[in-house]
Amino acid sequence: MGRKARIGLTRDFFDENGKFVMPGPGLKLLDEMPDVEYEMFPEFLREVTPEQLKGFDMVASFRPLWTKRSIAGNNQLLSIHRGGVGYERLDVPALTNAGIMLFITPGAVRRPMAVVYMTFILALSMQLFTKDKLIREGRWAEQHHYPGYGLVGRTLGSIGVGNIGHEMFKLANPFGMKHIAYDPYVTPEDVVDIDVKLVDLDTVLTESDFLT
Question: What tens digit of pLDDT does each residue of 74-100 get?
Fold first, then answer.
């Protein structure tokens, strides 16, 4: 029998007591794999170092930076599995040149982040933050100075219509808003299902009542 595949997990997946804190099945899936063993990085460093990677075939990474220095001299690492989206924390060309595969999890934050956007839009439209302050300070009699604003007919704009932006417009559909967006990488056909009109950057900046 060959050796087990070794997976490293960056320290920020765990709390100060070493408890895995991410939602979902997490480590239970790895526990069920007899040919796999995993180990937590002993400490969190802002940038992954070659020393941290010794002996690992794969690494699950959350927030650390991955640079050319991180993988210098490494001939064992096969893949990096990032818990999140975006590539700003990783030197993708360096990983490509080293033959290291990179995986991200776009579906993990698509709905949660879209919900965050809509939460703020609803809170702002009703001046919820101001009214919360009035209540806490015993000034509720002043609330008539801070009326809410209905969303019907308002313009919701977005700079970019990727996974999160697309999901946000989907959630916003029942509120009767006008949807506009600037994104040079999508076509009108890509956003027809969420009733979004693609416009230039100046238009989305000047015409949006709410902008994400």
Answer: 999 999 999 888 889 999 999 999 999
Nearest alpha-carbon partner for 157 in 130, 189, 191, 107: 191
Architecture of the domain delimited by 5-104: 3-Layer(aba) Sandwich (3.40)
Domain ranges of the chain: 5-104, 109-211
The structure tokens listed for 67 are: 């640079």
| Distance separating alpha carbons of residues 5 and 25, to the nearest angstrom | 20
- Residues 92, 95, 101, 107, Cα dihedral to 10°: -30
Integer CA distances (angstroms), 176 to 10, 96, 130, 157, in order: 44, 45, 25, 13
Which tokens is 154 given?
């308002």
pLDDT digits (tens, 9 = 90+) for 30-68: 889 999 999 999 999 999 999 999 999 999 999 999 999
pTM of this structure: 0.74
Report d(CA 135, CA 132) in Å as an integer: 5
Question: And the tokens for 198?
Answer: 């693609």
Superfamily of the domain at 109-211: NAD(P)-binding Rossmann-like Domain (3.40.50.720)
